[in-house]
Sequence to fold (178 residues):
Amino acid sequence: MKGIVFNLLEEAVTDAHGADAWSDLIDAAGVSGIYTSLGSYPDEEVLALVQAASAALGIGTGDVLRWFGRTAMPLLSERYGSFFEGHPSARSFILSVNDIIHPEVRKLYSGAGCPHFHFEDNPDGRLLVGYRSPRQLCQLAHGFVEGASDHFGESAEIEHLLCMQDGHPLCRMAISWS
Ligand code: HEM
Fold:
C-alpha cells in the first residue's frame, strides 16, 4: 500500500482524535509509523492500524474503514481538486475512477495497486458496482462513495449484495442517491 494512504489515515485520525491517538495506534499496531507518500509498505501494516483503531474505539474494522474512506474524501479533494472538477454529481465522479482517477494515481505513485470496478446500471435505477481485490477493502470503497456524496451535497444509500468477506469471489454493491 502506498504511503499516501498511511498519510491520509494519520491526518484523519489526528484531526478527529489528536496526535496522541495516532502515536497510540502506531504502538498498538506494532508498525514503524514512518511513511513517505511515494513509498510502498506492506498491506498488513494498514490492516494492523485499522485493527488497532477498531480495538481502541470498540467498533468493527469495517466501520473503521468506512469512517476512514468518508473522512479521507475531503482530504483528497484538497490534494486532487482536478479529479472533482466538471462532475455534476457523485455518480459521475465515481464513474470516472477506472478511466481517469486511478490511472492518474498509478502515474503519480508508481506501483500503486488501485482496484478496478465493474459498473452497471440496474433496471431499478441503482448503480451496480462490482469490486474484486485481494485486499478486500470494499468497506473503504463504501466510505469513499459516502465521502464523494457529501462532497456533491448528496446522500448515498449503499447496499452490499455480495461480499468477499463472506466468501464470495467478488463484492457487489447497489448504490442510489438522493
Ligand atoms: C480523488 C480521488 C481518489 C484518489 C486520489 C485515489 C487514490 C488511491 C490510492 C493512492 C490508493 C492506494 C493504492 C495503493 O496503495 O497501492 C487507492 C486505493 C483504493 N481506492 Fe482510490 N482514489 C480515489 C478515489 C476512489 C474512489 C472514488 C473509490 C471508490 C469508490 C476508490 C476506491 C479505492 C479502494 C477500494 C482502494 C483500496 C485498494 C484495493 O481495494 O485493493 N478510490 N486509491
